[in-house]
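1st attempt posting a full record on here, be nice pls
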Amino acid sequence: MKVSGEYKLKDYFKYFFYIMFSRRSIPVFIIVALIFAFLYESLFVAYFCITWFLVIFIFVLLITYFRYKTMKKAAKLGLKFRSDITLGNEELKVEDFVGDAVFKFSDFRRLYCVKEFKNYFYVFIIRSQAIIIPKRFFNNKNDMQKFREKIVEYL
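the predicted structure (as tokens):
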């Protein structure tokens, strides 16, 4: 099964913010900081942890901003972010503007997970790497259902 289409800037940023904010890392970090502060009876520890958290958060936002500016400039120059994704019996192949990638199912036991949202499929190869497949890449709902059924086999 092959799907193809053109990525938009919002596709990448929705995925990026999903990764940043959907995980429990932010609340867990704050809770751990408060536990340390309670254990050591010191607000300095909590202040120190939260300060580092804010520094890292601002750094990530700056990286996001510069990534956005770069992609926006590339789009203005006319670069197309086109991708062809093929789901075969033995592999998942992605051909896009960066290059080609082939993920053979024999190289790993299974896909990490597949998340389906209103407009996207995120096919996680490993916990921190996913293939973004916008639903607009599919020609019709029947193709999308076939993709769902096929991808479930590799979970």
